[in-house]
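Changelog-adjacent note: as of this version, every example in the card shows the full chain rather than a window. The one below runs 62 residues end to end.
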Amino acid sequence: MFENRVIEKSDIIAGSCDLSAGKFNRRNDNEITVFKNGGGAHLDLMVSRYILDRWQGRSLRV
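Full-length structure tokens:
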């Protein structure tokens, strides 16, 4: 993304730890959260499960 100048490093205002800890939220409904996972597939599954649960209106799993 950086190579093609789609986004700049200055566009990043929080990391995944900030998001998961609830330390950062979108400022308005027009903002987009981009999640870039450079690691294990287990994180993909956890994020997918969270998104599916939220979309289906279920309570979050712990």
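Structural remarks: DSSP finds two helices and no strands in the chain.
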